[in-house]
Amino acid sequence: MEKPRLRFAQIWNMNLGFFGIQFGWGLQMANMSAIYEYLGARPDQIPLLWLAAPLSGLIVQPIIGNMSDHTWCWLGRRRPYFLAGAILSSAALLAMPHSSALWMAAGLLWILDASINISMEPFRAFVADLLPESQRTQGFAMQSLFIGLDAMIASALPWLLVHAGVANTSAAGHAIPGAVKLSFTLGAAVFLAAVLWTISTTREYPPEASDQPAECAAASPAVEILAAIRQMPRTMRQLAWVQICTWLGVFCMWLYFPVAVARQVFGAAGPESPLYTEGVQWAGLCFGMYSAVCFVFSFALQPMARALSRRRTHGLCLLAGGLGLLSVAVIHDKYLLLLSMTGVGVAWASTLSMPYAMLAGCLPSNRTGLYMGIFNFFVVTPEILASLGFGWVMSHLLGNNRVAAVVCGGAFLLLAALLAQFVEETAPAPDPGPELR
């Protein structure tokens, strides 16, 4: 069908749910490594404890994407998954800061990440479902805008609450500070409210008959996923390597930037030091900075892409992020870290939109959700590799130097910037049909 152009307010409403999803992600990324260290984790244990995030995405996203391709009910195609994931995620966010042991925090992270993925994966297909090709860059850039805005607030929230008078210490017998607990409670409310807004203000188009052939609907999800992997469009294969290097870099930053700031810039000897808490909270403010830049820079992505092409725009943005992370190695002034995070924010805005805008144009409409889920493989696979292997790298090659781990992240972003220049955007090939799968 010929999709009508949507007004700005309609694009705003359909993407507002991403605000809530990324509020949950922002709290998690800025605080989980510190929560683990509060509960007694060693630096070389942290990558493995983060394994929940990528592994749940690897399993959940393609399954949910395939299911949403074949769903149609009174609530729509993608929106039932938005709602289910939001309810489960909010419950996990409420419970997380009350963890009393390392195993409890790790288990809740598994639940939280699986639930977030249930909501998040259909949002990518949602944009492709509702927007014509001419508005897709704008639609995905709007997602970057919301992601940047809420992640900015979420990352800085513990720091803001402390300066508003909330206790910066933990209750007797509990290692996690009160400001972190309140931040996660507020995050649960924001997550659910934002997703409910999108569900209530946006309607979906019923799938066309050609989008859901009877034979396809009868195929098992595993068969469809494997067939789709074999038939990946060329653009998607090229973007895969860009994504792998990008997310290796981002994951290194998420794992070690907060604790690197606490130790290198603030001089904390360990988690028991008040300087450690101050450093982690400042790192959260730095994450808020790159999210703020992401929010502002999202407005520039569409005109840049028109002027330079999507791949050149993405490459330049990744270059800025790589240089930002490399600069952490020589910074000892906490305020200069905000400048480093400016480059990261530029890269982050592009990472959240440009690859998906390039990808959406090459996908068959009846398998958009499935391919968006498979595309997530190239986000979570490097994270799984880092979770399983980076602990060994930390202890045997980097001497548990957290700053060196952040610098490694910058090097991966520079490689991703180079690979982005070889991506060729193509039109979607016709769906081969179930007999060829």
How does this structure look, described?
The chain is mainly α. It has 17 helices and no strands. Residues 212-218 and 432-437 have low confidence and may be disordered. 57% of the residues are buried.
Describe this structure in a few short sentences.
Helices cover about 75% and strands about 0% of the residues. It has about 425 residues and is an all-alpha fold.
Beta percentage is under 5%
Largest sheet: none
List the secondary-structure elements in sequence, H or E: HHHHHHHHHHHHHHHHH
Mean pLDDT: 83
What's the total helix number? 17
Shape: globular
pLDDT < 50 runs, ≥5 residues: 212-218, 432-437
Q: Give me the secondary-structure category.
A: mainly alpha
Count of extended strands: 0
| Rounded radius of gyration (Å) | 21 Å
Tell me roughly what share of residues is in helical segments. over 70%
What distance separates the N and C termini?
25 Å
Question: What keyword list fits this structure?
Answer:
74% helix, 17 helices, mainly alpha, single chain
Task: Describe the secondary structure blueprint for this structure.
Elements: H1 8-38, H2 46-49, H3 52-69, H4 79-95, H5 102-130, H6 133-163, H7 178-201, H8 214-218, H9 221-230, H10 234-265, H11 274-308, H12 310-326, H13 336-351, H14 354-360, H15 368-375, H16 377-396, H17 402-420
